[in-house]
Specification:
Elements (H helix, E strand, L loop, with lengths): L4 H18 L3 E6 L4 E4 L1 H7 L3 H4 L4 H4 L1 E2 L6 H8 L3 E9 L5 E13 L2 E11 L1 H14 L14 H21 L2
Antiparallel strand pairs: 1-2, 1-6, 3-4, 4-5, 5-6
Length: 174
């Protein structure tokens, strides 16, 4: 007996929900008015939030962004544009800083913007480690000899950098 279209549709939704919650990338989807309609397990981990904190809520009621930055999700929704590999730093409702690299797409059906989807990779821990290492190293100096690599391309970059450094020093030490 062949399943009817309704049964197939329900089954497909179950499969899609399982996939979305099992992948190791954050998935956040908003509708046309900016309310969250999909918020997967990995995104909850990245942002340190419970699903109840985010689902069915307006994005700007839950997250805040630096003055000159906007949510890539809202930008994709408002402008109807795809944004790839965009680094974004923002804050959850607990004030915790979150840094992600996102691919964000508008959802358009019959020329109508229905919402937007964001696929996020967590960079929060990486950013924190970089900041901590910069603070620790403070006055550490590196030289061109510190660079590891012997390929032609690496040597080409080192040589060009040395020339630029010498020109800069000559121009500013007069």
């Amino acid at each position: 007996m062949k399943p009817d279209n309704h049964t197939e549709h329900l089954q497909r939704n179950v499969f899609l929900e399982k996939i979305i919650n099992e992948i190791d990338m954050g998935v956040h989807v908003i509708n046309s008015v900016g309310k969250t309609i999909i918020y997967n397990r990995k995104m909850r981990e990245i942002e340190g939030m419970d699903i109840e904190d985010v689902l069915d809520k307006n994005l700007l009621d839950v997250f805040s962004f630096n003055q000159n930055e906007d949510s890539t999700l809202l930008e994709a929704l408002r402008k109807g544009i795809t944004i790839r590999n965009a680094k974004q730093t923002y804050f959850n409702n607990k004030g915790q800083e979150i840094t992600t690299v996102n691919d964000t797409f508008p959802i358009i059906e019959d020329r109508v913007r229905m919402g937007a989807i964001e696929i996020a990779r967590d960079k929060t821990k990486y950013e924190k480690l970089v900041r901590e290492n910069l603070l620790k190293k403070g006055s550490t100096k590196f030289t061109f000899e510190s660079i590891i690599g012997a390929s032609y391309k690496i040597q080409e970059v080192i040589d060009a950098s040395k020339r630029a450094t010498h020109q800069f020093l000559r121009a500013h030490n007069r």
